């Protein structure tokens, strides 16, 4: 019986020690995924405000179930993407949906973001998963250019990781 318990304990420890494998974030791939989705998305560039203390504590998540998520209220002030670039004012409440897979949780910090916001009823949701993507903190000029090219139907190819 001790051998069985030892084997079970060893398997659990190996499972937790395994690293999370994620594709590198890619704005063109995120754009293609949003465009192909049945959900409605908009792309917004702006300043994100929220209480960072509400983010899940990664240490505490070691005992959490896979697939847990936490909704955190936030505010995003900036511009949404149009054919003329980031030109339409966007200032509203957003929900930060932070998902976790075991000990790994999505996260971000206050400040400048480029985000694909998903519409749920009358709310806009910023998805933050353990594997980065769909939200870019401190976006680069290349990322802004790439998403604008995708939006107007120009070159929009996801790079291979």
Overview features:
signal; alpha+beta; 23% helix; five-stranded mixed β-barrel; 161 residues; globular; single chain
Provide structural commentary.
- The chain is α+β, with helices and mostly antiparallel strands.
- The protein has one domain.
- The protein is built from 3 helices and 7 strands, in the order ααβββββββα.
- The chain has helices at 2-17, 27-36, 141-151; strands at residues 41-50, 69-82, 85-101, 104-105, 111-120, 123-128, 135-137.
- A 5-stranded mixed barrel has the order 1-2-3-6-5.
- It starts with a helix and ends in a 10-residue tail after the last helix.
- The model is unreliable at 1-17 (pLDDT under 50).
Task: Indicate the topology.
Blueprint (H helix, E strand, L loop, with lengths): L1 H16 L9 H10 L4 E10 L18 E14 L2 E17 L2 E2 L5 E10 L2 E6 L6 E3 L3 H11 L10
Parallel strand pairs: 3-6
Antiparallel strand pairs: 1-2, 1-5, 2-3, 3-4, 5-6, 5-7
Mean pLDDT: 85
The neighbouring-strand order within the major sheet is 1-2-3-6-5
Structural class: alpha+beta
Number of separate helices:
3
Sheet bearing the most strands, described? 5 strands, mixed, barrel
Strand/helix succession: HHEEEEEEEH
The proportion of residues in beta strands is: 35-45%
The structural domain count equals 1
Number of β-strand runs: 7
The 3D shape can be described as globular
User: How far is it from the N-terminal to the C-terminal residue, by CA?
Assistant: 46 Å
Q: Could you tell me the radius of gyration in angstroms?
A: 18 Å
